[in-house]
Amino acid sequence: MRLGDSWMIPAWLSLSAYLAIYTPLLVAVARTAVHRFKVPIGVAVPLAWVATEYARAHVMTGLAWYFLGHTQYRFVELIQVSDLVGAYGVSFLVALAATSLAPALPTSWLSRCGWWPADERSLAASISPRQTSTTISPPSC
Q1: pTM across the whole model
Q2: Contact call for residues 97 and 89 (beta carbons, < 8 A)
Q3: Residues 6+ apart with CB under 8 A from 12
Q4: What are the residue ranges spanned by the domains of the chain?
Q5: Cα–Cα–Cα angle for 41, 54, 37, nearest 5°?
Q6: d(CA 24, CA 66)
Q7: Is there a contact between 117 and 87 (Cβ–Cβ < 8 Å)?
Q8: Tens digits of per-residue pLDDT, 36-87?
Q9: Which one of 26, 39, 66, 97 is CB 3.0 to 4.6 Å from 33, fit for a cystine?
Q10: What gap in Å lies between CA 34 and CA 79, rounded to an integer?
Q11: How far, in Å, CA of 91 to CA of 72, rounded?
Q12: How far apart are CA 103 and CA 51, in angstroms?
């Protein structure tokens, strides 16, 4: 792809580095809320998710796209709540659903591969909420 100006290369790299900060920030905020303030992980992760979306939309440049709530545009019944709480509320509900379903994962799958401890499953599931597979099969380690 041809760039309009040679300054676009450092601009792309800087923007990528800036946006890459938000995922570790999400993990840090959620872990701090759970371990220091004793907030239940089912509430801490969705709140941290919405907080990082809000920060991404308002800090520095204001990149207010690709919210988790924006992925639900096809589910009219779900997004009706956006009249009351906006895209941030829909993002919170989707992250809350993912965090609530994570404890249903069998712990034997995670421990067999040496993955996360059982109390970290909710955080792991909420970081990848766009998982659309309806069948769950054991991991092949």
Answers
A1: 0.71
A2: no
A3: none
A4: 9-127
A5: 30
A6: 17
A7: no
A8: 999 999 999 999 999 999 999 999 878 888 899 999 999 999 899 999 999 9
A9: 39
A10: 28
A11: 9
A12: 23
